[in-house]
Fold this protein.
Amino acid sequence: MERLVTILKTAGISAVIASLVFTAGMLFNIANPYGISIKPAPEKIITIVKTVEKNGGPRLKSKAGDCAAKPVSASTAESASSTVTIASSGEGETIADLSSLVAPIPPAEKLKDIPRLTLGKAREYYDSGRYKFVDARPQYKYIEAHIKGAYTLSASFFNKQLPAFKEVAATGDELVVYCSSLECRLSEIVAGELLDKGYKKIYIFEGGWAEWEAKAYPMEGVKVSK
Amino acid sequence: MGSKSLSDGRREGEQMKRKELNRFLSSKYLLTALRIIMGVVFAAASYDKLLYPAVFAAKAAEYKIIPELLLPVIAVALPWVEFICGFLLVLNIFSRSAALILAVTLAGFIFGMVYDLSFGLVHDCGCFGFLEESIGAGTIIRDLVFIALLLPPLIYGGNEFALLSRKEK
């Protein structure tokens, strides 16, 4: 009996603590400049909160707080708008069928014809403004930091993010896909899937984020240093 | 008669061992050390997630067991659970309840990792904001060890506002 009382008392106090902590978290979220929206919404606009000059143009520090609820994210390629758009399908989705989210690993032959870019070439393409950069890394890495103006199309949420991506990139557009570094294969997975979806002009920037960041080329995200 | 006294002796020996183990697990020094270690670990784990809930939300989104609707709430509340409960453990305030909440949180993480790994999905753990580690056997074993380390404060720890009660005494 005494043990039961102890267990109930512990559970009760735990529930009270959890409720208080939950309230504290919600209040802090309101005050936090990087706080997120608790209510999932179909589309959010993220405003640039800081502009920082560093190596080759302005770097934008975005307030990516509104990107909760498994969003499909895409940043505007046009820097003139100075906004990052986070969109989500807004549809309730079951998670039972994981293949509806995740891109499968493509066969090697399919990827042979995709041209590979070095860092210099990638920067050249970036500066031309003709190419749309696609970030194949997990979405949280994109939110932390990414090539300025790049779109997120992570391998783990490819099928979910694709509809929003299609709205900003036509099949005739030229795409440069990148992931973390030479070792990662996510860009190949995403490039292979994009080929299947009708995108023909695809390039893979092999050095990816590691090389871009090392050169401190234009980038943005919540963890881009001031 | 002889065999009976032998089994009695064995039983007594086992009881002695159990008593010693209980005494060791409930010793003040062990409980204090475990509380401080686990408290600091959880407070440190929460730091990055507290500041950047959007990043944590994206990491948590990789866990397929979390419903989409609850994702932002979990992304905001969970780091606070880790931080406050870690803080309570260090200060020995309601440490039993804090240990219970943290153990349940860890169990949830373990379940989420096992579920995703069963589908062959490997993604960032999201356990420590400042560490980039993928889910796998290592993270599951580590979380199991953390649960084991939380058990002594959970079973033998106090569940009171310890600072106040000490003053009262």
Remarks:
- Helices of chain B lie at 2-25, 28-51, 53-61, 71-91, 95-118, 137-156, 162-168.
- The two ends of chain B are 52 Å apart (CA to CA).
- Chain B touches chain A at residues 50-59, 61-62, 64-65, 67-69, 71-73, 75-77, 79-81, 84-85, 88, 94, 96-98, 100-101, 119, 121, 123-124, 126, 159 (CB under 8 Å).
- Residues 2-25 of chain B form the longest helix (24 residues).
